[in-house]
Amino acid sequence: MKQNIIPAIRLTLVCMVFFMGVYSLLILAPAQLAPGRGKGETVVINNKVVGWKLIGQKFTDDKYFWSRPSAVDYNAASSGASNKGPTNPDYLKQVQDRVDSFLVHNPGVKKEDIPSDLVTASGGGLDPDISIEGAYVQVKRVAAVRNISEEKIKSLVSQHVEKPLLGLLGTERVNVLQLNIDLDNLK
């Protein structure tokens, strides 16, 4: 018995030192070179942090483009999904409520024209981006509320389209926070 316990204790101590010390430093060092020094990339306006580039924000005012819904109410401390399946009655009601709300705020849009990313939450619940279709379907509402031409708003959306990583990984998307910030700066 002693011949098994002593090596197990040694291995445990070696693993603790490695994973609590060496591994942590190996991760921390490259993070210091990243934007935000490993603490996230904040968006600052007039010396005030208004959000994080890679964490979704809640926008519900009609003068802004709406973000993708969040199952955790955009709380980065507890990211996650609802874990309800596509046939769960509670989930279906929640999606239907989002569809109904979207249709009320966006008259003239048909139910079948609403992109799924505007009525379903992502797996992490903190998506900062929406699809291009999700942005364009909101143009009419934003333009009407702000009394700006739809063409000018469409042009702004086009300027915020982010391409897939290396042209291959992911889909084209629009960062909602950056778009709304530039929308506020439109003259």
Number of strands: 5
Oligomer: single chain
Distance between the termini: 78 Å
Helix content: 40-55%
Q: How many separate structural domains? A: 2
Strand content: 5-15%
Count of separate DSSP helical elements: 6
What does the main sheet amount to?
A: 3 strands, antiparallel
Judging from the principal axes of the Cα atoms, what is the shape? elongated
Order of helices and strands: HEEHEHHHEEH
Give, in spatial order, the strands making up the sheet with the most strands: 3-5-4
Please give a quick description of this structure:
The protein has 187 residues and is mostly helical. The protein has helices spanning 2-31, 89-105, 132-136, 139-146, 150-159, 176-184, and strands at residues 42-45, 48-52, 129-131, 161-162, 173-175.
Protein architecture, described:
This protein is mainly alpha-helical and about 190 residues long. It has 2 domains: about 35 residues; about 140 residues, no CATH class. It contains 6 helices and 5 strands. The strands form 2 sheets. Strands 3-5-4 form a 3-stranded antiparallel β-sheet. A two-stranded antiparallel sheet has the order 1-2. A hairpin with a 2-residue loop joins β1 and β2. α4 packs across α5. The chain is elongated, with a radius of gyration of 22 Å. The termini are far apart. The model has no long low-confidence stretch (mean pLDDT about 85).
